[in-house]
Amino acid sequence: MAPKDGEGLWTLGAASALERMAKGQLSARALVEALLARIESEEPRVQAWTALDPDYALRQADAVDALRKSGQPIGPLHGLPVGVKDIVDTKDLPTECGIAAYAGRRPSHDAALVDRLRAAGAIVLGKTVTTEHALFTPNKTRNPHDAARTPGGSSSGSAAAVASGMVPVAIGSQTSGSVIRPASFCGVVGFKPSHGSISRRGVLAISRHLDTMGTFGRSLEDAALLAEALYGYDPGDPDTRPAAHPRLSRTLEEAAPVPPLFALLEQPGWEQAEEAATAGLAELADLLGAQCDSLALPDPLRRGREVQETIMYAEMARSASALYGRSAESLSDQLRQGIETGLAILAHDYLVALDWQNLIRAGLEEVFERYDAIVTLPALGQAPSLETTGDSLFCLLWTLYGGPAVTLPVMQGEDGLPIGVQLIGRIGEDARLLRTAHWLLQRLQEEDQHV
Fold it and tell me: Is 215 helix (H, G, I), strand (E, B) or coil?
C-alpha cells in the first residue's frame, strides 16, 4: 500500500509518485519536502550530493504544482524529482565534475538532457557526486548498504541516492562501467541505452565513441520511464540520429511473443569473480534451462578491454588537454597518469582500435541474430572497499559494443550485499531488451513463489 503520511513518501517509486500526483492525491511540494527530510537523515552517512539547494527545489515544486492546477498541458515527468550527475551542466546549480579546478563553476546553459527534463516537468532535485572527471578516483560517497564499501563509480552519488531513498530516479553516465557497476553494488536498476540515444551536449566529454548517458531507479519501470523522456535527436550531438521516439515503458510491460533466448557468456577475467556471483549466475542459467545457452566468447571479442582502453585514453587525453595544460598539479595522480597514457597513444593505434570496435560490433550482431539478450555479471561481486570504485572489467566489452545494457538487483553476496545480473541487447533494440528484462524478473518472481 502506498504511504499516506509525508514521512513515508520517500519510499514511492517514480511511477507511483507520478500516478498519485496525476490523481490529485499528492503534490510535488509534499514529495520534495519528504525527500529533503530523507536527505537530511541519510546524507551524513551516504554523502551522495555535491550541490543541493532546498529552497530552489521547493520553488520548482511550487511552479509545477501551479502549472498542473492551471489546466495547461504537462509533460510525462511532471513533478518528479530527479538527481543529476555532476558532469551534466545546470545553469541554476554548480557543475564541478569532481574536479578541484572546477570548484564553483556555474554553466551559463543547461545541458540538452536537462532541457528535456524540464520540458517533461521534472524537478532537478540536486547534483549527485561523481568521481574525479567521471573516471577512477573515488569521491566522498559511501555505499548505503555498508558505509565501509564503495558505491561504485563514476556515477557514485546517483546510484547511492536512489538506493538510499533520497530520490526516486537519477541520471548517470557510462564510458567504461559507470552505470551498470554502481547499480549492482548499490542494489538498484541501472539502464544504459544504446550509444547515441540521449544527447551529451552540455555533458563533460571523455570519449565520443564510448560516452553514454543512463538512468537509475529502484525498479525497471522507473529507470525506463526516466530514460524514455530523454531520448531524441540533437544536432549538437553528432552521434544522435533522427528516429521515432521509443516506447520503452509500454513495450517493457507487453508480453513477449515467444519466451526469450539468452546467451550466457563468461568473459576474460571470469576467474577473478566471487564464487557467490558465478554460482548465482549458474543457478539462473539452470532455472532458464533450454532458454539459456552457455557460449564461449570468440577470440576477437577477447580484445575488448584492450580496444576500449585505447579508445578511452586517447579520446580522454584530447578532451582533457586544456585542463591538463593549466591545472595538472591539481589533478589526482591517477587522472594525470591516465591523461599522460592517452597522450602517448599513437594515431595509428587509435585508428586501429576504432576499426576493431566495428569488427567487434559485427561479431556481436551475429550473436543477436539468435539470442534476445546476453546475460553475464556486471561486476566481480559485492562492492569492494572505499579505496577503489571496483573493476569495470565485465562492462568494458558491452560499452565498446554500444548496445543497451541493464543490471537487475537479483542476487546477494556472502555478506548479504547486492550483486546484479547484467543483460545486454542489440544496438537500437532498447525497448526489446527492457521487455526481456521484465520477463526475466517475472520468471524469477514466479520461482520464488514456488519455493
Answer: strand
